[in-house]
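Is 2-acetamido-2-deoxy-beta-D-glucopyranose placement plausible here? Inputs below.
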Amino acid sequence: MSSKFSSTLLLLISILMSIQLLASAGNFYRDVDITWGEGRGKIQEGGRGLALSLDKLSGSGFQSKNEYLFGRFDMQLKLVPKNSAGTVTTFFLSSQGEGHDEIDFEFLGNVSGQPYTIHTNVYTQGKGNKEQQFHLWFDPTAAFHTYTIVWNPHRIVFLVDNSPIRVFNNHESMGIPFPKSQAMKVYCSLWNADEWATQGGRVKTDWALAPFTAYYRNINIDGCAVSSGNLFM
Ligand SMILES: *[C@@H]1O[C@H](CO)[C@@H](O)[C@H](O)[C@H]1NC(C)=O
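Reply from A.M.:
I modeled the complex. Tokens:
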């Protein structure tokens, strides 16, 4: 092989590899649309970060452009600090229409010094009632942490910083429905739910502290995207 040819080949390979790296890192500009909140949702850091805010008039939210049937969905979040009572920050998957399927991570705010509650749930054909709640082993407002949903035909796993906190196995053979036939989009939002969110609804949102802001970073979707009946990876 001539040295000219082999150096051209090396250059080509390195270009291809960098394209591959770019394609695998998520980007909010490429992967999501901000769908509500009239300017309260903002993409930052060239697409690496996204801030959602909530004030008395409105919260805000975004959703993935694609829908997916199974995959691994990673999101880093830094939650509303200090008194976040009444606020709910979400990261979930959902199909659309009647009898929808849904896989939820919801972060229920609390007064300063009291722990956030992580609320998880799984809906199949419109039926939920599979809530499980957790308290975290760190302060989720001090730094970004990674929250992950792994969804395949056998099980759903909820992970926090790569540690599984909940496994929901497919027990269809025992008559328990499992979401596996409807494609889902990724949804994230920050909204006011002070009717029920904090200490059973007893503590209301303190609007003097608004706007409240939650930060998302490094969305990473490794899923099977479904678009008008076509499958592509
Ligand atoms: C808030 O703090 C209280 C008291 O520590 C705790 O019982 C509750 O689970 C926390 N989370 C929410 C969302 O109320």
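Short version: The domain at 28-232 is CATH 2.60.120.200 (Jelly Rolls).
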